[in-house]
From TrEMBL:
Chain ranges passing through the membrane: 204-224
Name the UniProt record assigns to this protein: FAS1 domain-containing protein
Entry GO CC: plasma membrane; side of membrane
Main localization category: membrane
Keywords annotated in UniProt: Cell membrane, Glycoprotein, GPI-anchor, Lipoprotein, Membrane, Signal, Transmembrane, Transmembrane helix
Subcellular localization: Cell membrane
Organism: Carya illinoinensis
Superkingdom classification of source: Eukaryota
Span of domain FAS1: 26-170
Length: 225
């Protein structure tokens, strides 16, 4: 084999090795969420705060993987107006990191976690950002001290990253200790008069007519005397 052939084989080996590394790149959290179309608010927050780039970078070198809890747009719409916008930049980062566990957790492994479960937001040993997880009959519930959420659909899983949908935005107690959910709007009961149907109105009219007729007869009788 000539030196030229050996040289080209070496280049081919380097090229194939580079392709292997490129093809095995870590998943992109925003691309995963974008496929579903229901996470526009969350995607915007992840991009604006830099948390998306941070998570994607850590996924590329992680040995333990990550778990991400994704709240859909509907869950954000149920929050009191201005709940997220009023946060400082640091609080927004901590709020998003509260939705991230620095370990890959399957549905069946949630029951093995010890409470409080540490998140990327803070050190639970110091009492920061507590997240409690309970699991039973394949149902997983999350409690932040402010809201109680339930785990829903598995959006993505590849043994390095698990993304689960949750029905509520996870509001950490350290940031939202004074949070009050918006009051539910109660439908007012229509007044009684408005509930009378046409048949009722006709009955009342007939009754009034008979009363008036009786009065007229009595008056006529009196005058005839």
């Amino acid at each position: 084999m000539t030196k030229q052939a050996i040289f080209f084989l070496s280049l081919l080996h380097v090229f194939l090795f580079h392709c292997t590394i490129t093809c095995a790149q870590a998943p992109d959290i925003t691309q995963i969420l974008d496929k579903y179309g229901d996470f526009k608010v969350l995607i915007r927050l992840l991009k604006n705060t830099g948390v998306a780039d941070q998570l994607n970078g850590e996924l590329a070198k992680s040995n333990t993987g990550y778990t991400f809890f994704a709240a859909p747009d509907k869950a954000f719409s149920e929050l009191r107006t201005g709940t997220i916008n009023k946060l400082s930049d640091l609080q927004k980062v901590q709020f998003l990191q509260f939705h991230i566990l620095a370990t890959y957790v399957t549905l069946t492994n949630f029951q093995t976690l010890s409470n409080p479960v540490p998140t990327q937001a803070g050190d639970t040993t110091a009492g920061q950002f507590p997240l409690n997880v309970t699991s039973s009959d394949r149902e997983v519930h999350l409690s932040t001290g402010v809201v109680n959420a339930t785990l829903g659909t598995t959006l993505y899983s590849d043994n390095n990253l698990a993304v689960y949908q949750v029905d509520k935005v996870l509001l950490p107690l350290d940031i939202f200790s004074d949070y009050k959910p918006p009051e539910a709007v109660e439908e007012s009961t229509p007044p009684l008069a408005a509930t009378v149907d046409k048949s009722g109105a006709v009955t009342l009219a007939m009754h009034a007519m008979f009363v008036l007729l009786g009065i007229a007869v009595n008056v006529g009788a009196v005058l005839g005397l």
